[in-house]
UniProtKB/TrEMBL annotation:
Transmembrane segments: none annotated. Keywords: Glutamine amidotransferase, Transferase. The keyword Transferase applies. The keyword Transferase applies. This is gamma-glutamyl-gamma-aminobutyrate hydrolase. Pathway: Amine and polyamine degradation; putrescine degradation; 4-aminobutanoate from putrescine: step 4/4. Belongs to the peptidase C26 family. Its EC number is 3.5.1.94. Involved in the breakdown of putrescine via hydrolysis of the gamma-glutamyl linkage of gamma-glutamyl-gamma-aminobutyrate.
Length: 257
């Protein structure tokens, strides 16, 4: 059997705005590295093509989907969230690509792993909602909600708060203790949990930090933190990638192409 193929969601970057704008579809290398190095998989970058994306063809050919993080925020009309705050970054192409894909991925039993924005996308796809500005709306101060992207990366992605793992869940099975440490780089967070999602972990202030999709046929996990950051230096981060890899390999083994 060959390597499993993992689709990785890209985001839109418009440079040189105005008359001569140039568009990039980009993925940060830290999301690709664990797919290649820990999962032994073939990464397939998925551009945010919206309606131009043939979802059937895509999902017939991949063995897993990774929903990446991203600086942009989901447009609040997707969760009846009212207006965005002034200057809020958005990526409507990505919303139009990823949000309609998520339930199809799960319905087919294709393994799914959502990180940060990807975790929020899963919540919204299942009918949940988000706090648009954690530090104002919910006074949840733990989360690096006002992110300084100019900070050195090791400081930005350092573990900053505890994660309390729900007993009996997917995360509890793959970790070696009920309290772990996680990093945190997000201004938004889960307000209302989506239908059919099971909480897997919370931060000390009660914010949902991880969930799985109840009754999914395969691995379907979302995490608010960044397990792609130096995963071999944190046993839980690494275990999450290994569990995703196991699911992708068993999916590949049972699906002839
Ligand atoms: N924009 C959302 C999601 C946060 C997120 O995905 N952060 C990642 C930033 C860059 C990276 O991928 O490392 C929010 O602010 O909550």
């Amino acid at each position: 059997m060959g390597r499993p193929v993992i689709a990785i969601t890209a985001e839109t970057l418009d440079k040189h705005k105005g008359q001569n704008s140039t568009r990039y579809y980009q993925v940060m290398a830290k999301y690709v590295a664990p797919v290649v190095e820990l999962m032994g998989a073939l990464p397939l970058l998925l551009p945010p093509l919206g309606d131009q994306l043939d979802r059937d063809t895509l999902l017939a050919r991949v063995d897993g989907v990774l929903l990446t993080g991203g600086v942009s925020n989901i447009e609040p009309h997707h969760y009846q969230g009212g207006q965005s705050y002034a200057g809020c970054p958005h990526d409507p192409n990505r919303d139009a690509t990823v949000l309609p894909l998520i339930k199809e991925i799960v319905a087919r039993g294709v393994p799914l792993f959502g990180i940060c924005r990807g975790f929020q996308e899963m919540n919204v796809a299942y009918g949940g909602s988000l706090y648009q500005q954690l530090h104002i709306e919910a006074d949840l101060a733990l989360h690096n909600a006002v992110v300084d992207f100019d900070a050195p990366a090791d400081a930005l992605y350092a573990d900053v708060h505890d994660l309390h793992i729900e007993p009996g869940g997917l995360l509890a099975k793959i970790t070696d203790g009920p309290v772990q440490r996680v990093n945190s780089i997000h201004g938004q967070g889960i307000k209302q949990l989506g239908n059919g999602l099971t909480v897997e972990g919370t931060s000390p202030d009660g914010l949902v930090e991880a969930f799985s999709v109840a009754n999914a046929k395969s691995f379907a996990l979302g995490a608010q933190w960044h397990p792609e950051w130096k995963p071999t230096q944190n046993s839980m981060y690494e275990a999450m990638w290994r569990a995703f890899a196991d699911a992708a390999r068993s999916y590949a083994a049972t699906h002839q192409r």
